[in-house]
Automatic annotation (TrEMBL):
<keyword id="KW-0732">Signal</keyword>
<protein>
    <recommendedName>
        <fullName>TonB-dependent receptor plug domain-containing protein</fullName>
    </recommendedName>
</protein>
<dbReference type="InterPro" id="IPR012910">
    <property type="entry name" value="Plug_dom"/>
</dbReference>
<dbReference type="InterPro" id="IPR037066">
    <property type="entry name" value="Plug_dom_sf"/>
</dbReference>
<dbReference type="InterPro" id="IPR008969">
    <property type="entry name" value="CarboxyPept-like_regulatory"/>
</dbReference>
<feature type="signal peptide">
    <location>
        <begin position="1"/>
        <end position="21"/>
    </location>
</feature>
<dbReference type="Pfam" id="PF07715">
    <property type="entry name" value="Plug"/>
</dbReference>
<keyword id="KW-1134">Transmembrane beta strand</keyword>
<feature type="domain" description="TonB-dependent receptor plug">
    <location>
        <begin position="116"/>
        <end position="215"/>
    </location>
</feature>
<dbReference type="InterPro" id="IPR011990">
    <property type="entry name" value="TPR-like_helical_dom_sf"/>
</dbReference>
<keyword id="KW-0813">Transport</keyword>
<comment type="similarity">
    <text>Belongs to the TonB-dependent receptor family.</text>
</comment>
<dbReference type="GO" id="GO:0009279">
    <property type="term" value="C:cell outer membrane"/>
</dbReference>
<dbReference type="InterPro" id="IPR039426">
    <property type="entry name" value="TonB-dep_rcpt-like"/>
</dbReference>
<dbReference type="Pfam" id="PF13715">
    <property type="entry name" value="CarbopepD_reg_2"/>
</dbReference>
<keyword id="KW-0812">Transmembrane</keyword>
<keyword id="KW-0472">Membrane</keyword>
Length: 537
């Protein structure tokens, strides 16, 4: 759970215009919540290692331009992130990170938090104050109970309805588990004990960027999140505890054609027979990549390149086969070649958001950061649907801000301020797979053996899980020391359902000492709970 996150930043716009002779100089003053000047505040531009300090009167001067973003930090205060919008003078108010109040409100995972710990605007609706019985609608019963709360089309908006199409409704959390408005409507209103409303983008202090539009936290009299069909009465910790052996092991049977190739006298003969059997194995999800790997494993780069050229020139190879091949090339650091395949995938699957993402991430590694940014940032304010849209945007938000931090020269003029967030994590794990007809039910098991997954998106130690079919992400800002495991299931009984998985792990994500590792796995069907990766913190 995030304990230190951006707070309220107040901009006082000066009447004078931006100076032409000194257009890269920004001045301002930092105050605490009592309007007292705050000295020794550290100020840095996002993406820059250089920092400045406020003087004894809280004043500062820094070289920065319009659309740069300043980060203000001070011990004992909540970090503030301030985009420069073109004003000559900036006034920043920083709130203390207070502890000790006895008043409790509902927070992430159903845990009680001190009101002073939760630095967002909030309101609490008790069961007796709900009008649900009269309206026969759980959500309509919230109307008029908290200032600034509006109900429209059975959804809650906490900052006004900016667009009917845009997905800017508040996040729904029921008994500590992220849920949906549809499910909230199915709950017997007599079971609702209270509703805690966290307003504004700072609701992310509890649930991350997916709560940028606020959060509606519903507590029931009967803990719905702790009741499962086979775990009645079990605690959340018990329900989401991984009890099987954790040892990395990925084993695959050798395909018949590879066994035949191994018996041949030369790799020239293997390449010739590979091409002769293309039609026979046209429907095989792994034929081309298996042969490519065969040559790579025998250090025959000439023939492996010939296989790659066959794949690039083919018009019959499926998008999922191309994606598996692109995974392997990315793992090998052959980014230009992977980008060629990702371009082909995009042409075959133009409505698949993952295709755009794969290509954009490839562009970042070959000096095309601006194109990558323009491509990915487009999705942040695009309606992608209720089911998968918010999860994909969460992942995209991390990657767009990561681009900005790594390449400060990227022009971000069109990026809305609410899409600029701090994206430093001790650990980030991204799991991609090449098939959209198979759900691998990915689990990330932490050192305390609790697993994060689609059904348990927030863990007790602060891990956050997001994902759509074919793309899952796990992030944790302050990782506990120990081993983290990636567990997947390919329990399909269809022989052709071989699936390729790419696991990308980042240690110190977004920091100067970031470490990245990419590994690709071939998963055969009818194999459950395969532990495919281990990350040590």
């Amino acid at each position: 759970m995030k304990k230190i996150l951006p707070l309220i930043v107040i901009f006082l716009m000066s009447m004078s215009s931006w100076s032409q002779n000194d257009s890269d100089k920004v001045i301002g003053t930092v105050y605490d919540s009592d309007k007292q000047a705050l000295p020794n505040v550290s100020i840095a531009k996002m993406g820059s290692k250089k920092s400045y300090k406020t003087d004894k009167n809280g004043n500062f001067s820094i070289r920065a331009k319009a659309n740069d973003t300043l980060i203000f930090t001070h011990d004992g205060y909540m970090q503030s992130i301030t985009p420069i919008s073109g004003s000559e003078e900036i006034v920043v108010v920083m709130n203390e990170n207070l502890l000790g109040s006895k008043n409790k409100i509902e927070g992430a995972l159903g845990l009680k938090k001190n009101k002073d710990e939760v630095t967002t605007a909030y309101g609490v609706i008790e069961a007796d104050d709900l009008n649900i019985a009269n309206s026969n609608n759980n959500i309509q019963g919230f109307q008029g109970k908290v200032s600034g709360l509006n109900v429209n089309n059975d959804k809650v908006y906490l900052r006004g309805i900016r667009s009917i199409q845009a997905n800017n409704s508040a996040l729904v959390v029921i008994d500590g588990v992220i849920s949906t408005y549809e499910y909230l409507q199915t709950i017997d209103y007599n079971l609702i004990e209270s509703v805690t409303v966290h307003k504004g983008a700072n609701g992310a202090a509890l649930y991350g960027s997916q709560a940028a539009n606020g959060a509606i936290i519903v507590k029931t009299k009967k803990s719905l999140s702790n009741v499962k069909s086979n775990n009645v009465g079990a605690s959340k910790e018990d329900v989401y505890k991984y009890n099987k052996r954790l040892k990395v092991k990925v084993s695959n049977t050798t395909p018949e054609y590879i066994s035949e190739f191994e018996k041949m006298d030369s790799n020239t003969a293997v390449l010739e027979n590979y091409r002769l059997m293309m039609e026979k194995y046209a429907s095989s999800p792994s034929y081309h990549l298996d042969v490519y790997d065969f040559f790579e494993n025998t250090n025959d780069s000439e023939n492996s390149k010939a296989v790659l050229n066959d794949v690039i020139s083919s018009e019959t190879i499926s998008g999922e086969q191309l994606r598996a091949f692109a995974y392997r090339l990315t793992e090998q650091g052959k980014i230009e070649e992977a980008n060629v395949l990702n371009n082909k995938i995009l042409k075959k699957l133009p409505n698949d958001v993952k295709s755009y993402r794969d290509l954009a991430l490839g562009y970042t590694q070959v000096g095309k950061g601006q194109i990558a940014f323009n491509t990915l940032s487009t999705f942040l304010d695009t309606d992608l649907g209720e089911t998968n849209g918010s999860s994909f945007k969460t992942i995209t938000l991390h990657e767009v801000n990561h681009m900005i931090q790594k390449e400060p020269s990227i022009r971000t003029n069109d990026l809305a301020s609410h899409n600029i967030i701090e994206t430093e994590y001790d650990l980030r794990i991204v799991v991609d797979w090449n098939r959209d007809d198979i759900n691998l039910n990915v689990k990330i098991v932490d050192p305390f053996t609790e697993f994060a997954s689609a059904e348990n998106p927030i863990t007790r130690i602060g891990g956050e899980f997001s994902g759509i079919l074919g793309l899952n992400e796990y992030v944790i800002r302050h990782a506990k020391k120990g081993d983290y495991y990636v567990v997947v299931n390919n329990d399909s009984d269809v022989p052709e359902s071989i699936t390729y998985v790419k696991v990308t792990t980042y240690k110190n994500y977004g920091r100067s000492n970031e470490e990245k590792e990419v590994t690709t796995f071939k998963l055969e069907p009818q194999k459950k709970d395969q532990v495919i990766a281990q990350v040590k913190i």
